[in-house]
Design a protein that fits this description.
elongated
Length: 160
Amino acid sequence: MGANELSMQLWRERELLEMLLFKLEEQELLLLAGRTRWLQHATREIETVLERLREASMSRVVEADLVAGEWGAPEGSGIRSLIAKAPTDAWRGVLSDHLRVMTQLTGEIASMRDSNSQQLRAVLRATQETLASLGDDAGEYTTRGDRATSDSARIVDTQI
């Protein structure tokens, strides 16, 4: 029974890894389209999936320890160790498939994360350069929306 539960847990993790990759791709599309307004929502969704993935990972560790006990593997054995100790070719195949797919997904996730991180840094740099090019008096307007002069009332107080 423990091996079945472990396999089901690995399926859940695979689904969450796929969801994480999807959310990272959404974030990439927003960045490429210049739709930075929605980045906070994409980031929150990524964080939600990561939290669910952490919880699933903890559940997998518990299930793996139970299977390790049943199969005579040391406590804390990873999937590779369980594959080596699997009592049948069928279980070796099932666990090997999970490991292969999860390894592939984590590689894709790492690549997408790195790409998005570079794009986010570029967006930040461009924003900072734009703000710097506006000068010291950028954003100083009267309550009517006219450009502020030194003697008019300003919405933004530059003395702060």
